[in-house]
Q: What sequence folds into this?
């Protein structure tokens, strides 16, 4: 099921080594890389993000910039880590990763061979793009949406085709399907990152039924547990042309521990293996399995995060700030009416880390949902920033038609 020995005889050693070198050409990006790059004022080119070092926040900073779960791992997960840690002197002889894959498969009605375990879903996303796109097979994605897949095309050489969201900020599945008859991957993040908005299961199934021949759907369900959206694991069980991603970084609070799942037909998952698959730490696999078996975790955290999100949105609207769409996730987008990067800088000066922006919406910033205390600090800082003298200068300059990029560096946000 998971972590099976690779069939060198079938692929050939030379082909395997070529695929492994190909995979290494572009770093595998995660949400943390993109969030850190945004705070550092850099736009990652896919080559220099790793090694540039994170923007280390000062003590007491409010970190609502990377869609992390500040609640951290559950009690059950922490206990599982403590139990597994003394076994860390040896490799996974107890089959912890295999048990995780079996547990996930059983919970979702999937057969053996339909689940692979990775250190976060970013690896599986990256390898799927490498496996199914090429200079002649494009990567089709919504705009805005999660960017990691686009960076993987720097290695595969695939054309990127961006399709704007609908008027309700869902994925425009008809436009995605029609975007390129030679699509290799059509990427759907549901709920979407950064908007937190939903695309109906019916629309995703329609895309699956009408996609170009030879293309696969890559459905990223990293945030599915935070919403009431229907998942599409039954489409995996029905042997359709899709791969579904899950992560333990969001509702399970394990972003720094690293665990993720790729679910799909065995023949599709086999194409990902050509690009490598490192053994999982037994502590990570144990924590992930314990999280799956904790029946109280999802409903309790979904309610807490949902209540905090709804309270934050209500406050924003009451203060006449524009929220984009109806988020059902742990993030939301605010149209500030001003350069989003300037707002990020101003918030950072007040020790509140938010962000990031997307090229299609340069005036909008993404806010992650933190604890109620985090969001209280956000409200205070955001109101102060939006009413700041420097921000007023920007607003006046904007209305006067001045080049905001030219004056922004001269403003003081403290």
A:
């Amino acid at each position: 099921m998971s972590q099976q020995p690779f069939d060198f005889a079938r692929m050939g050693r030379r082909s395997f080594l070529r695929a492994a070198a190909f995979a290494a050409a572009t770093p595998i990006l995660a949400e943390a890389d993109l969030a850190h790059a945004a705070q550092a004022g850099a736009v990652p080119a896919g080559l220099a993000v790793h090694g540039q070092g994170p923007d280390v926040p000062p003590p007491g900073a409010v970190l609502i910039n990377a869609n992390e779960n500040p609640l951290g791992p559950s009690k059950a997960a922490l206990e599982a880590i403590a139990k597994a840690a003394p076994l860390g002197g040896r490799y996974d002889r107890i089959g912890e990763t295999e048990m995780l894959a079996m547990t996930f498969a059983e919970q979702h009605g999937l057969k053996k061979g339909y689940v692979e375990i990775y250190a976060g879903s970013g690896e599986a996303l990256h390898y799927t793009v490498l496996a199914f796109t090429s200079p002649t097979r494009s990567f089709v994605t919504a705009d805005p949406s999660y960017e990691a897949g686009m960076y993987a095309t720097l290695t595969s050489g695939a054309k990127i085709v961006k399709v704007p969201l609908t008027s309700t900020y869902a994925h425009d599945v008809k436009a995605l399907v029609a975007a390129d008859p030679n699509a290799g991957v059509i990427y759907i993040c549901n709920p979407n990152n950064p908007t937190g908005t939903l695309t109906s299961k019916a629309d995703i199934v329609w895309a699956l039924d009408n996609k170009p021949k030879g293309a696969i759907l890559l459905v990223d369900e990293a945030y599915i547990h935070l919403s009431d959206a229907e998942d599409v694991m039954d489409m995996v069980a029905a042997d359709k042309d899709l791969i579904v991603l899950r992560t333990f970084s969001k509702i399970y609070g394990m972003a720094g521990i690293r665990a993720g799942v790729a679910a799909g037909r065995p023949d599709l998952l086999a194409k990902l293996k050509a690009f490598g698959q490192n053994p999982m730490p037994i502590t990570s696999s144990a924590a992930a399995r314990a999280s799956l078996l904790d029946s109280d975790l999802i409903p309790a955290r979904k309610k807490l995060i949902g209540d905090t999100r709804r309270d934050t949105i209500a406050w924003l609207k009451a203060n006449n700030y524009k929220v984009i769409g109806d988020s059902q996730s742990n993030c939301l987008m605010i149209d500030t009416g001003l350069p989003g990067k300037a707002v990020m800088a101003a918030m950072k000066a007040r020790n509140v880390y938010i962000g990031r922006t997307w090229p299609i919406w340069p005036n909008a910033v993404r806010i992650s949902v933190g604890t109620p205390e985090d969001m209280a600090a956000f409200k205070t800082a955001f109101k102060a920033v939006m009413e700041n003298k420097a921000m007023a200068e920007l607003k006046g300059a904007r209305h006067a038609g001045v080049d905001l990029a030219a004056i922004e560096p001269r403003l003081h946000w403290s």
